[in-house]
């Protein structure tokens, strides 16, 4: 296992990048601590797979360095980085038994059969596939094949990092929760450094201790799932995490206050900056139907069982509220109250209010 340090990392697929937009990865400085569980989260094209390939050695960065502990591995090939990688599609040998598939990475490195037997037995127990050890892999279901692929990544005790590149893409939705839970359990037991790449916020938030949110080649926020939900550092994080995402409302700033649709909106704290574009951000969980708020007309109501999502128009802007109990009818005029300690200003996308004391 290893601490992974990224120093001044940039990458462009162009031979002679000249402008910032020429870079698929803009400047990144980040540290993954030894033994942590991390997720790289973002939409397709945000740079997360590029970053994973650079860490694994499949791609050399245009600029910067990658350190495993204190060793510079920037120019080392994958086979000298001592990593394990699990891909979208299970990488196993169908003609081999489950036992031989799990044993392959160890035998390939010349480990004794006593070591092979001990490690394969331990990993099989963790994955709950002991009863399948003598089964040919071709007879396994897709979720069990991916379990074996995960096991091949975990069976070695000497890896610096185990990387998962969207490993649940081909798994049926009703089995994804089970495999995510199993992977989280495995991390707690083996304490390997793990990096999980996904565009699915549920996968990232349920697996990782720390989530790295990326957009357009930039890390926009790093934090725990709770931190990303409760205090998005950027409007992109607010949009991308949560269902529905954060309300982002155009506003005007004057005399140290924010005004939406001509009405002053109390914020969590002092405004710390401004920009060409200013917006108010508040999650639907913190918008209520209560007197004294902004007047809006109900556009749509979605009943989700435990609660409903009410969409109302305030002027030309849509505002969503999560409501429990009775809901208004479509077309009804309602009062939308914002919880002040969860209402923030964003300037050019970035958080620009001080947290309340």
UniProtKB/TrEMBL annotation:
One of its GO terms (cellular component) is ATP-binding cassette (ABC) transporter complex, substrate-binding subunit-containing. One of its GO terms (molecular function) is ATP binding. It comes from the Bacteria. Gene3D superfamilies: 2.40.50.100, Nucleic acid-binding proteins, P-loop containing nucleotide triphosphate hydrolases. InterPro entries: AAA+_ATPase, ABC_transporter-like_ATP-bd, ABC_transpr_FbpC, ABC_transpr_MalK/UgpC-like, Mo/tungstate-bd_C_term_dom, NA-bd_OB-fold, OB_MalK-like, P-loop_NTPase. Keywords: ATP-binding, Cell membrane, Membrane, Nucleotide-binding, Transport. Residues 4-241 form the ABC transporter domain. PANTHER family: ABC TRANSPORTER ATP-BINDING PROTEIN, MALTODEXTRIN IMPORT ATP-BINDING PROTEIN MSMX. Belongs to the ABC transporter superfamily. This is ABC transporter ATP-binding protein. It comes from Seohaeicola zhoushanensis. The lineage of its organism: Bacteria, Pseudomonadati, Pseudomonadota, Alphaproteobacteria, Rhodobacterales.
């Amino acid at each position: 296992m290893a601490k992974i340090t990224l120093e001044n990392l940039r990458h462009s697929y162009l031979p002679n990048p000249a402008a910032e937009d020429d870079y698929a990865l803009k400047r990144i400085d980040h540290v993954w601590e030894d033994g942590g569980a991390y997720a790289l989260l973002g939409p397709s094209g945000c740079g997360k797979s590029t970053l994973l390939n650079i860490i694994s050695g499949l791609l050399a960065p245009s600029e910067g360095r990658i350190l495993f502990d204190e060793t510079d591995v920037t120019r080392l090939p994958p086979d000298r980085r001592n990593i394990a990688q699990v891909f979208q599609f299970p990488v196993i040998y169908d003609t081999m038994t489950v036992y031989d598939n799990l044993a392959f990475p160890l035998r390939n490195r010349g480990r004794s059969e006593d070591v092979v037997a001990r490690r394969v037995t331990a990993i099989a127990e963790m994955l709950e596939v002991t009863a399948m050890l003598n089964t040919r892999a071709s007879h396994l279901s897709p979720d069990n094949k991916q379990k074996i692929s995960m096991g091949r990544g975990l069976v070695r005790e000497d890896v610096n990092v185990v990387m998962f590149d969207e490993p649940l893409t081909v798994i049926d939705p009703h089995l994804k929760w089970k495999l995510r839970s199993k992977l989280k359990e495995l991390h707690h037991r083996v304490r390997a450094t793990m990096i999980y790449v996904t565009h699915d916020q549920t996968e990232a938030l349920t697996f990782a201790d720390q989530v790295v949110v990326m957009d357009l080649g930039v890390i926009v926020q790093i934090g725990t799932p709770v931190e990303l939900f409760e205090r998005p550092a950027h409007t992109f994080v607010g949009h991308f995490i949560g269902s529905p995402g954060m309300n982002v409302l155009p506003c005007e700033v004057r005399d140290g206050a924010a005004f939406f649709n001509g009405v002053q909106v109390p914020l969590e704290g002092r405004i710390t900056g401004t920009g060409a574009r200013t917006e108010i951000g508040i999650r639907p969980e913190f918008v209520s139907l209560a007197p004294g708020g902004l007047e809006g007309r109900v556009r749509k109501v979605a009943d989700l069982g435990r609660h409903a999502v009410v969409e109302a128009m305030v002027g030309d802007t849509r505002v969503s509220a999560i409501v429990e109990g009775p809901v208004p009818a479509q077309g009804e005029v309602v009062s939308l109250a914002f919880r002040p300690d969860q209402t923030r200003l964003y300037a050019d996308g970035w958080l620009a209010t001080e947290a309340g004391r």
